[in-house]
Write a structure and sequence with these properties.
By secondary structure, this protein is mainly α. The chain contains 2 helices and 2 strands, in the order αβαβ. 37% of the residues lie in helices and 7% in strands. One of its GO terms (molecular function) is FAD binding.
């Protein structure tokens, strides 16, 4: 799937903003998310301490073993689907965990992404 010219323009016009403010935007996102939903912090694999300058990710991955298999993952619901998006290792970890807990492989969807063929110039 190729990008429309308007999409290419939007991406190019925001790159400079992300280069300059990406860390601050990401830090604000995590702070807001964890302030509004503090229960999410306990789902991480490891607790994060103060992040060093330039760090744009929160330490720790979602740890599915900390979730209730029925209440949170709906493993008994045949209509439930699991969509994961992130790095390849993250997607594979989530798929492996879901299958370990009884998630049907056909209900686990892995979202692949990349910058692909963005025109340069």
């Amino acid at each position: 799937m190729s990008l429309a010219p308007a999409q290419v323009h939007t991406i190019k016009s925001t790159v400079i903003v992300l280069q300059e403010h990406g860390n601050a935007i990401t830090a604000r996102f995590y702070k807001s998310m964890l302030t509004q939903s503090p229960e999410l912090k306990s789902l991480q694999s490891s607790e994060s301490e103060e992040q060093p300058p330039g760090t744009i990710t929160n330490v720790g991955r979602m740890n599915l073993s900390k979730l209730d298999k029925e209440r949170d993952l709906f493993l008994g619901n045949e209509a439930a689907e699991y969509h994961t998006c992130g790095s390849e290792s993250f997607r594979m970890d989530m798929k492996k965990s879901l299958r370990t807990y009884g998630g049907d492989g056909g209900r686990i969807k892995l979202e692949l992404y990349g910058t692909g063929g963005l025109p340069r110039g």
